[in-house]
Design a protein that fits this description.
The protein has 204 residues and is of the alpha+beta class. The protein has 2 domains: 2-101, no CATH class; 125-203, no CATH class. Helices cover 35% and strands 14% of the residues. It is built from 8 helices and 4 strands, in the order βββαααβααααα. β2 (10-19) and β3 (24-31) form a beta hairpin. α6 (152-159) crosses α8 (185-203). The radius of gyration is 19 Å and the shape is elongated. The termini are far apart.
Length: 204
């Protein structure tokens, strides 16, 4: 069976699926676009990396219940979509389009060109995508960290300018509102609380 790696509605590459002892593997058979996901080495590793929270017992159990206990199940259920880029996967004979699978309607740059500093220091992890209502918040946060540096606060302080400081002070009077898409009220409250804590820590 053939699968396609997509960037929005553009076919990036085609992969052939093969079944192994305990999972499925994907071998590239044709590449149409030189712009691959950042850090891409193999499709199997890329799919596994998209399942970033599967090591947590609660997430792993939920994934198993939804049939996502192997790579094929993960592709078929969530299409490998992410909050941080526009890459996804589908069967080559599928008529699914980007608008059918996109988690949000955010605009991303298709060419990989750097347009400027992102408004978030944490690549959208502030949305708490893997937090479950009864998780221990401190334990959850202890597993979240930046790709550069040791902490979000330390990185933010290193990049702090008078202009950014003024914006952070203004954000103290700002409250996130429900974004829609079924975003739960309890998670919104947590996001607002973390925002206040992080601003206080950065400005301290």
């Amino acid at each position: 069976m053939l699968y396609q790696l997509m960037n929005k509605d553009r076919v990036v590459a085609t992969f052939e699926e093969s079944e192994e002892l305990d999972d499925f593997s994907y071998r590239m058979v044709e590449q149409f676009d030189s712009y691959l996901p950042y850090g891409f080495t193999s499709m199997d590793e890329w799919i596994d990396d998209r399942q970033i929270a599967r090591h947590r017992t609660s997430i792993r159990k939920l994934m198993q219940e939804l049939g996502m206990n192997n790579r094929r199940g993960f592709i078929n259920m969530v299409r490998c979509v992410s909050l941080t880029d526009t890459f996804w996967m589908k069967r080559a004979d599928s008529e699914l389009a980007w608008q059918d699978v996109s988690l949000y309607s955010n605009v991303f740059d298709d060419t990989g060109e750097v347009l400027g500093m992102a408004p978030l220091f944490d690549q959208n992890m502030a949305l708490l995508p893997y937090l479950i209502e009864h998780d221990d918040l401190e334990e959850y946060l202890s597993h979240q960290g930046p790709k550069i540096g040791r902490s979000f606060v330390g990185l933010a302080r290193a990049l702090l300018t008078s202009e950014i400081r003024a914006k952070l002070v203004t954000l103290k009077n700002f409250t996130y509102e429900a974004p829609g898409f079924g975003y739960p009220a309890w998670k919104l409250e947590v996001a607002n609380r973390i925002k206040e804590q992080q601003i206080d820590a950065i400005l301290a």
